[in-house]
Design goal:
Layout lengths: L10 H12 L6 E3 L3 H17 L3 E3 L2 H5 L4 E5 L1 H16 L14 E6 H7 L5 H6 L2 E3 L1
Parallel strand pairs: 1-2, 2-3, 4-5
Antiparallel strand pairs: 3-4
Helix pairs in contact: 1-2
Length: 134
């Protein structure tokens, strides 16, 4: 398998990439989290559906809309912990004195998408999922 990286800054760039993917063999689409994913996710989801390939994202909202799975930091937990850091800094703690914390990961799996793609997800992975979308 060959990994290819594409960068898109506009919807037109993204559509051009989707046409290029359609002309190649594409086994999976992995989308990294950024503003473009949030804004243009409908285009990305439609491309994955048209190509009949799994889409993996860092945003659980994409899984609700048809992506196969998402794996990324628990965003709610990250924002809650950010409040702790802001509070500590406002109370006089130096930022360099605060610990670096690793965010907990969140795995969301869309079982309907897996079935449509003919993918069987192992039970061990299903048991580790934070959320299963039926």
């Amino acid at each position: 398998m060959v990994a290819r990286t594409y960068n898109a800054s506009t919807a037109d760039d993204l559509r051009t990439i989707c046409v290029a993917l359609d002309q190649q063999t594409c086994d999976v689409i992995i989308v990294l989290p950024d503003h473009g994913l949030a804004v243009h996710r409908s285009i990305i989801l439609a491309a994955a559906a048209a190509l009949h390939v799994p889409l993996i994202s860092a945003l659980p909202s994409c899984v609700l809309e048809g992506a196969l799975l998402s794996l990324g930091p628990n965003r709610h937990g990250v924002f809650r912990r950010a409040a702790y850091y802001v509070d500590a800094i406002f109370k006089g703690t130096l930022p360099s004195d605060l610990p670096i914390e690793e965010a907990s990961k969140e795995l969301t799996i869309n079982l309907k998408a897996a079935k449509a793609l003919g993918i069987t997800i192992p039970a061990t992975i299903l048991m580790g999922a934070d959320e299963l979308i039926q």
